[in-house]
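tl;dr need the bound structure. longer version: we got a ligand (zinc ion) that a collaborator sent over and nobodys looked at where it sits. i said id run it. heres the input, straight from their email, havent touched it
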Amino acid sequence: MLNVHQQTILRLLIASHGMSRTAIAEKMKLSKAAISTLIKEMLHAGLLEESIPESNGQGRPSVLLKMRADSAYFLGASLTGEDVHLVLIDMHGRVLASTKMALNLDPAALAHTIAVAIPPLLAQKQLSPDQLIGLGVTLSGFVDENQAVCVQSALLGWRDVPLAALLHEQTGLEISLENDAKALAVSEKIFGVAKKARNFTLITHGDGIGSAHFFQGQLHRGAHGGAGEIAHCTIEPGGRPCRCGKRGCLDTLASLTALRESMRDKALPCRDVAELEALAMKGNSAAIAILHQAGHALGLSIANIIQMNDPEMIVIAHQPNAFDGLLKTVVMQAIDSHVLPAIIGKTPISSIVIHQESWARAAASVAAYRFIVQLPD
Ligand SMILES: [Zn+2]
């Protein structure tokens, strides 16, 4: 078991692209000799590797320490689509193997289906079960603070389902459940664009809208696991009815579902956002109005997040070809017009494309995050 200093070293290395012993010692305010002893044990345990960077011509470069890709393996399952995607990742977040199966809404049957799919996935990479650290599961909905129970998922039709216990019974693995947007934020924090950010917000733009926040390097789950639920913030009081029972929520204005509804209401000849954008490009006023309304609502919500939390960056995770053109332009304009003038342009906005497999990788990242950041004492 790693001690608290070694856990800190892992966290530092995850947030960097490699660090020298000297840099780690300075950061942790420990002597270089003490750091060397701690690292020796971690090298021996196969957790770290050393690499010598290219010389820049100014003396001998320091040896950098990095996490070994093969130091740990994690599984991730996504329950966010019609199929369950199951992936195997290494410590660098690379997807090594994947499979998919039909989503069975009966929790016990689902746990059995996932358990049966694991051995063939490991066999593809000649891995043994004891090399696996854990299984993360991502779903649309609320998860309890122990990441063990799906408290509520409208998409799955579940309420208080102890999925972690069912999966643990079938697989013997440590199981971590997580809401889909939070899982994606974790994935970007430990493997992606937000690696170096201690404070950031990730927005997921899909059939529904989600968000998740990292504060001081930690995922903010809130008192009841519901932090970041911007989908149901009221943007237009008395507006369209929302599936949550309220009216005028952000979801009813800016989600892909809302955009498709608006296209149908206006009888526009398009099936998706890419076609709506193409129609707007040709000057169709209804298409332009729909994209404006959605972009304005989403931009306003992001501006409020920036105003309240002052994050280092915002990451917008969107479907392929569904956040380009006018929608993106209006979102960016709405952000700038609704934050205080003094902070306009100071929060970088980056965007990433999500595919169905991204959710499963995000789920696996949750298991990795638990291993790295929430290591037990
Ligand atoms: Zn709502």
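gonna send this back to them w/ a short note. The chain has three domains: 4-67, 72-187+358-372, 198-311+320-353.
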